[in-house]
DNA sequence: AAACAATATTTGTATATACAAATGTATGGT
DNA sequence: ACCATACATTTGTATATACAAATATTGTTT
């Protein structure tokens, strides 16, 4: 991926600006591949993230705030993400009896099934995206990302 | 920025998956800062990108396809981005006389003014975002990004 | 020249997201 | 108990984006 080719410029871009453009281009590319990978399963990246968080709960329900604080999206949209998953029977939602302001969300076996199906494909996809990296370079890359 | 802290997990994440999550988190952070920086000027990141492409044309008009191929967004949305800029008098749009299917878009002096105003602030912002990087590390980071 | 294909852009629509306000519930002070 | 405040979530709304179809113009074929 060459930045100058993609944005079609012949001018020299300052290193700082180039880095941030580069980052965005790479992120877009990765997102496109991810969305396309999930498309056959009818879920978006964010819906997938919610499902994984719920699976991580290992049968304990999660309330909306818990889900939300582990994601990048805003609270109001987390509600709507759960709505979508609910419509597909991938989660169940009920009001918490101890504190009726809260809602308890749990992944269903149908939701777990679809996640398990995706797991293998996702690992393949990740390997493909990162095939040009050595383990050493991946670690190095993560170290650099930590500087942001 | 520690990935495990942000997504609040205690589990070991496989290096490949961790890398892609890390990338997304960093990109989100950078985008947030950029949007916030542009907010006082009333333009979005994408609108800003269009303006810069137009400035790069150095008085020659650009048609929609030209703008679009230098951006990540889809054609139909480029139309709407230009609509927004038109409403702010940052660009003018007219039908190309040689080929009436095409439209010619040019940045106005008002558009140039706002870009010039933003230039300095943007450089400051970039420095701030990348303050923990040495020049050497930035180059290294770009080399790694090229592997995607 | 009429018909068809190719090109350039726009419009319609569904989904996604950000931000502010509204709703419903619980808690602490008086 | 009453009231203000805090908390948890939802709803409303504007903007952003993806995808498909529609429109308008030009180029090509017969």
Can you say what the CATH homologous superfamily of the largest domain in chain A is? Answer: Winged helix-like DNA-binding domain superfamily/Winged helix DNA-binding domain
The radius of gyration over CA of chain A amounts to 19 Å
CATH overall fold name of the largest domain in chain A: Arc Repressor Mutant, subunit A
Cα distance spanning the termini of chain A: 21 Å
Poorly predicted sequence stretches spanning 5 or more consecutive residues of chain A: none
User: Major beta sheet of chain A, specifics?
Assistant: 2 strands, antiparallel
User: What oligomeric state is this?
Assistant: homodimer
The count of β-strands of chain A is: 2
Query: What percentage of amino acids of chain A are in beta strands?
Result: 5-15%
Largest interface summary: A-B, 50 and 50 residues
CATH architecture of the largest domain in chain A: Orthogonal Bundle
Helix count of chain A equals: 7
What is the general shape of chain A? Answer: elongated
Structural class of the secondary elements of chain A?
mainly alpha
